[in-house]
Amino acid sequence: MTPELTALTLAALLQVVQLCLYSVAAQRQVGRKTALKPRDEPVELTGTSGRLHRAMNNHFEGLMLFGIACLVITVTAQSTGFTGFCAVTYLIARVLYIPAYVFGWVPWRSVIWLVGLLATTSMLLAALI
């Protein structure tokens, strides 16, 4: 497996971890009865639960682009030390983004997010060059 696909697999597992963290926090906030009901009416999550939910959704957005970058690099056999470094950088940024978002690390949350985006963009550009 290429380093890029390894990082993508770990990023997908990170998404599962984020889903679990969010689910536990949300259930604690709204209670089991509300958590088990259908969402006919939206439930407003605040505090840590809301931040975990938003961080998870943000990772879904970034994961789409990162997945495309990993797929393009791997299918076209363009994996290099640079693209592997970018993939690991993306993964580290996404791991750091969770506490940065939850604990409101300003401006570091935005910086960490940008590092992940630049790593993904660099992989996409490397595939074209």
Automatic annotation (TrEMBL):
Gene3D superfamilies: Membrane associated eicosanoid/glutathione metabolism-like domain. InterPro entries: MAPEG-like_dom_sf (IPR023352), Membr-assoc_MAPEG (IPR001129). It is found in: Membrane. One of its GO terms (cellular component) is membrane. Its main location: membrane. Pfam families: MAPEG. The chain crosses the membrane at residues 59-77, 110-128. The keyword Transport does not apply. It comes from the Bacteria. Keywords: Membrane, Transmembrane, Transmembrane helix. PANTHER family: BLR7753 PROTEIN, INNER MEMBRANE PROTEIN. This is MAPEG family protein.
